[in-house]
Amino acid sequence: MVSTTPSAGMPLTLGRNGRTPKTLRNRLASAPMERNYGTTDGHITEQYIDYLVTRAKAGLGMVTTEATFVRADGKGRTHQLGLHTDHMIPGLRRLTDALHAEGALAAVELNHGGRTAQSAVSGFKNLAPSPVPCPTAGGEVPRELTAAECYELVAAYAAAAKRAVAAGFDVINLHGAHGYLIHQFMSPISNHRKDEFAAPEFFMNLVIDAVREAVPDTIVGMRVSVLEGPADGINAEQQVAIIGKAHLDKLDFLDLSAGSYDAGEWIVQSGEWKPGILSDHAQAYRQFGLPLGMAGRLNSPEIIEEVLARGTCDFVSLARAIHADPAFVGGVLRGERYRPCIACNVCIDNLGLGQVTCTVNPAVGRSRVPVSTPAVRSASRVLVVGAGPAGLTAARELAEAGALVTLVDDGARPGGQFALAERMRSTPDFHRFADWSASENERLGVEVRLGTHADTSDVGGLVRDFGADAVVIATGGRRPEAGFVGGDSPLVSDIRDWLAAHPEILDGSAEVFPEAVTIWGADSVAMSVADTLAALGTSVLVVGPQEALAPESGRRAKILAVPRLEANPKVRIFLASTIEEFDGSRVRISRAGVQDEWIEAPGELLVSRSVLPLDGPLTLEQREAGLSLSASVPVAVAGTVVDKTPAIVSNAVKSGYDAAQRIAAALTASDDTDGAELAGNVPDRRSFSAISQLTGDPASPGASAPVANLPLGTPVRRLGLAQLSLVGTAPPDLVSIAAEAGFDFIGARVRPVTPTERPYNLQPGSPMLRETLVRMADTGITVEDIEFLLLDGTGLQNGADQREAWLRMMEAGQALGASTLTVACADPDLDRFGDHLAQMTQDGKAYGIVPTLEPIAYQTVRSIPQAVELADRAGCKIVVDALHVNRFGGTWAQLEDAAGLVPMIQLCDGPSIPPPGREGLILESRSERGVPGEGQFDLPAMLASFPADTPVSVETPSGSRVAVMGELAWAKQLKAAANSVLTTPVFTWSTT
User: Fold this and answer.
1) Cα separation, 354 vs 785, whole angstroms
2) What is the rounded CA–CA span in Å between residue 557 and residue 574?
3) Xylose isomerase-like TIM barrel domain: which residues (predicted)?
């Protein structure tokens, strides 16, 4: 990982036939990898902008978005980017401006899904050259396009190209590959037409001509599959012949890829295939005289240097390698270290499920802009127990944050059970993660103690023995029993134990390989072992209760192994079957609706039933809280020992990363705070990446003291800060002030709500948003809620379309990691408002944002029952403000009944007698509110109506006191006042 590739660093100029040339600063381009990071209606998000700009900063010469649909009926993914309307232009302009600022060219790939676009996703009937369904995409039979409709689609490509130029893109790539519409017209599988569109090149050339006419001076290229894949599809020679008939004088480059939906193994290749797999096909395209880009297993600096130095291609299209780590660019250009892709294909398999994540990079695809792990206190010592993927990840992340980390494991080598996967036939690149982890341990000074048992039943003892300030437990899940008669036979063993006991089989050094084995279970481990042993000539019997082989694995992860097993005559597979008894050479299996059957089961019987997390009703937060209390230091639990998601590496790595962030945030707290911070205080949810700071400031007057010996799993309430000043506090400053005052989170205003507030802009792409994210990462402060939206029935919000307004607010909230958006109702038509609230709730799912309806004493919705009824109808939540509850006369019973819908309580105080009239209520709400505990509201009783872990946000803005004291001193006073209220006899609250 330290070699340099001088060929990759050479500039490349694109542009032919008098078109204005554009120069890439190097030969590295991002491939148009789909990621599902957009909105449901095709807009780009702050998360997506951050993702792409991060890779531009890393040094890419050209950054490409993704397959971007040119018309709504061509949308194939739930959150795919679109260029189908002019509304897309402003957001994409923000992206291209940011990419240009980093020195990269901006490229977009234009696409229409054709038969692969299913109506369940797009909302439109899918269309195609012929009524041939695509089973892989969903199997919907498309309607055959008329000739006139074909020309209309050509015009849609041209219109999208114009929008791309208006949005600032330098380069347009036409998607003519992977089984999408242009490719469908080429293929005999999907084109059975008899008219002029029967010619495989006809539609392609119409698109090329129309796009060139629409954007005469723009760099335009086309992506090409060098072969389609299926035996009855386009072979390599036929594809070259088709491209030979293309109007190549109007193109500036070709971008070579491979495959189609019917041969997905060629689109995203397995780790079994050699690096640079498409090199052999690229030479045939040199005859056309166009610059060539190429994809296909370009996963190391060495292979990139090879294909560029040999002239195989002129630039490389990188997808998985830079998804795993943008630092790969520096690895290629300057020999810098990087996190390697392991070709597991979890990324592409997630595309049909949601956001594209990464096994080795747990920060991407988590519905948020990644937040760095905060730096820990100097000399903080952390013990990590378990050196599997979760433990390795936690150890590295904490060491990177400045902790002194000791990693212990009772195994002989790091990697845990993952180390066995390195030697499986279908996962040969998995060793790259273990190798990288080992080098990172060495670089960061992680002390690794192998062959060392740590008794996690006595975490306090471990803390004393290792002098630890925090502990991460990542010891792996428990293995289920065999569960059948004869399971205690010496021929029966756990498949992982068997593999560990026979390393010579997997490394190929065995003189004799097993003649036969039986595997009980059909999970991914069973599949991999069966596939590997079968390749060595072993006869394999697989019996599993699963309906399919390796159901926890995605299609691409098993796209080669499963067909091999099913076709191998020495492999027998019984699915939806249970082993009831083993007599030493046979098993009795049961299947629904069929009489039990004895079948031959020669060889040893290996149990592969995955692993199970710890038993019991406790949540992760409760388990961590109890462990932390018993050990008197923060304790986090990670990986399959507690994670209830499928036991795959990707989930374990994410769990380890999240645990590290919880621990790191605990260790950033000030040293003068008494008591142990509980890692379990904070929900483990995707939009909250770090646990809270210590809540409690003993140096402050009236601060609560720690409460010892809380019952196991006792939740600790988190305290946030909303408004400080009547004229507003810029969000970056509010983050810093909240951290110094000892709060856990803030409520952020995306933009000023009242005309008197200071102007500021927290919208996506703004410098203020980036500064806010930096300060959040430095302090551990999180953003829980964004505000404020008032729907009045006009359909407008500050003069703009209200839906556009809330989408932009949600986009900013997603970037900040918020989970709620506060909304109020001034619309006299509650049915209309309910419809808007339901639409907002539906839109929020794309951002991880839930609307919270706030009943306000002087607005249309001004009671708890009203708010509950509308929230139930829309599927959203409600937020309770102490001022308004007291003004509209909410009862404790109403609050208790609504408690399950309330994610946050807003705290302030005031006189028991309300001001006269609506104007008086408005003035009171928007002017100085009473400090908690200084007024006449029964705040402890109100708080007692809710669960003890419902967060509280102090919303007590002031003008006069801020002017005298300053914002920080005012925040500290509010913190002390809130602590006083929260520790009354009615409601006991712990700050530990």
Assistant:
1) 23
2) 21
3) 737-971
Structure tokens at 662: 């919880």
**Block residue for tokens 């994210």:** 773
Query: Coil, helix or strand for 693?
Result: coil
- Give the integer Cα–Cα distance in Å for 130 and 146: 10
Summarize pLDDT for 241-255 with one digit per residue, the tens: 999 999 999 999 999
Nearest to 109 by CA among 7, 216, 291, 255: 255
Residue type, 954: V
Nearest to 429 by CA among 357, 335, 353, 324: 324
User: 67-70 contacts: CB < 8 A, separation 24 or more?
Assistant: 67/32, 67/34, 67/109, 67/111, 67/175, 67/180, 68/108, 68/109, 68/110, 68/111, 68/160, 69/42, 69/111, 69/112, 69/113, 69/117, 70/110, 70/111, 70/112, 70/153, 70/156, 70/157, 70/159, 70/160
Task: State the helix-helix crossing angle for 864-874 and 830-844, rounded to 10 degrees.
Answer: 50
Give the model confidence (pLDDT) of 316-366 as tens digits: 999 999 999 999 999 999 999 999 998 888 888 777 777 888 989 998 887
What's at 883, amino acid-wise? L
Nearest to 66 by CA among 39, 91, 37: 37
| Number of Cβ within a 10 Å radius of residue 9 | 17
The helix-helix angle for 802-816 and 46-57 (nearest 10°) equals 50
DSSP string, 836-875: HHHHHHHHHTTTT-EEEE---TTSS--SHHHHHHHHHHHT
Q: Rounded to whole angstroms, what are the CA distances from 502 to 366, 420, 495, 506? A: 39, 11, 11, 7
Which among 853, 772, 762 is positioned nearest to 810, based on CA atoms? 762
The pTM of the full predicted model, rounded to 2 decimals, is 0.71
Query: Measuring CA to CA, which residue among 520, 341, 515, 531 is closest to residue 423?
Result: 531
Q: Which residues contact 843 (CB under 8 A, 6 or more apart)?
A: 39, 40, 803, 806, 807, 810
**pLDDT, tens only, 844-895:** 887 889 999 999 999 999 999 999 999 999 999 999 999 999 998 888 788 8
Average pLDDT value for residue range 292-296: 96
Q: Collapse the DSSP code of 786 into the 3-class scheme (helix H, G, I; strand E, B; otherwise coil) and give the result.
A: strand
Which of 294, 305, 356, 361 minimizes the C-alpha distance to 31?
294
CA 135-136-139 angle, to 5 degrees, is 30
Quote the strand ranges of 492-593, DSSP E: 492-494, 516-520, 539-543, 571-574, 577-582, 586-591
pLDDT at 413 over 60: yes
Alpha helices, H only, 131-258: 147-166, 181-186, 202-214, 236-244
Q: How far apart are CA 803 and CA 800, in angstroms?
A: 9
Run of H or E including 442:
helix 431-444
